[in-house]
Amino acid sequence: MKLKLYWQDLLDLVYPPLCMACDQRLFREEDQLCLACSFDLPRTDFEKFLENPVYRSFIGRFPLEYAAAWLHFEKGGKVQNLMHQFKYKDQPQLAVHLGRMLGEEWREASICKNIDLIIPVPLHPRKQRKRGYNQAAKIGEGLAEALDKPLVLDQLKRQVYRRSQTREHRFNRWSQVKSVFVLEKPEALKAKHILLIDDVVTTGATLEACLQAMTDIPEAKFSVLTLARA
């Protein structure tokens, strides 16, 4: 053990681990984020009330038990920087860490406490091969670990490849994703309360399309949780 710590200290001296948000050197007890940045993340507190802005955005679109986002996304802010790191800079462990942080902070919140399983918004296989992983699944991995809930990766599939829709109008985004997702075996999820997880919610079109694809699950209930809200 002492030898292992010695080599780790030597490695850290040559390649010091840096905070993913501020680039400051991390201390040994810190992981991915320094304590200051972990504390300073712009939390929404949406877990404290049902009719928060994310939940309200789905009223009249899809019946949900709960819906929320953990952090506020601001252009040029820390959350954008972190999301850029795990989506485009090959940092899947950061997504896992943030999912774990979310789960640890919201473990007793109704949206996390009352679910049976977690399903991440899937990527098309072509895009996942290019990126190397699905960032929503990595967030779900950390969340599932913290909540001790199963993460289901083999049911909801993305069957159509689409380009990035970041700049699309809400109606255009919905028209492009409404037939993109398919559910493999609805009966396997009968009577489950499903938490659909993604990295960010903007218009909610992608999340709504996923939910619509799961409407054939008998007696199921649904909630939505994202890392951030833009």
Work out the number of β strands: 6
Helix percentage range: 25-40%
Described by its quaternary structure, the protein is: single chain
Termini Cα gap: 44 Å
Query: How do the SSEs run, as a string of H and E?
Result: HHHEHHHEHHEHEEHE
- Kindly state the mean pLDDT as a whole number? 90
Percentage of β-strand residues: 15-25%
Structural category is alpha/beta
What is the CATH class designation of the largest domain? Alpha Beta
| Rg value | 18 Å
Record the strand order, biggest sheet: 1-6-5-2
Q: What overall form do the CA principal axes indicate?
A: globular
Count of alpha/pi helices:
10
The CATH topology name of the largest domain reads Rossmann fold
Assigned CATH architecture of the largest domain: 3-Layer(aba) Sandwich
The largest β sheet comes out as:
4 strands, parallel
Notes on the protein architecture:
With 230 residues, the chain is α/β, with parallel strands linked by helices. It has two domains: 1-40, no CATH class; 41-229, Rossmann fold (3-Layer(aba) Sandwich). 40% of the residues lie in helices and 15% in strands. The protein contains ten helices and six strands; from the N terminus they run H-H-H-E-H-H-H-E-H-H-E-H-E-E-H-E. The strands form two sheets. Strands 1-6-5-2 form a four-stranded parallel sheet, with helices on both faces. The chain has a two-stranded antiparallel sheet with strand order 3-4. 37% of the residues are buried.
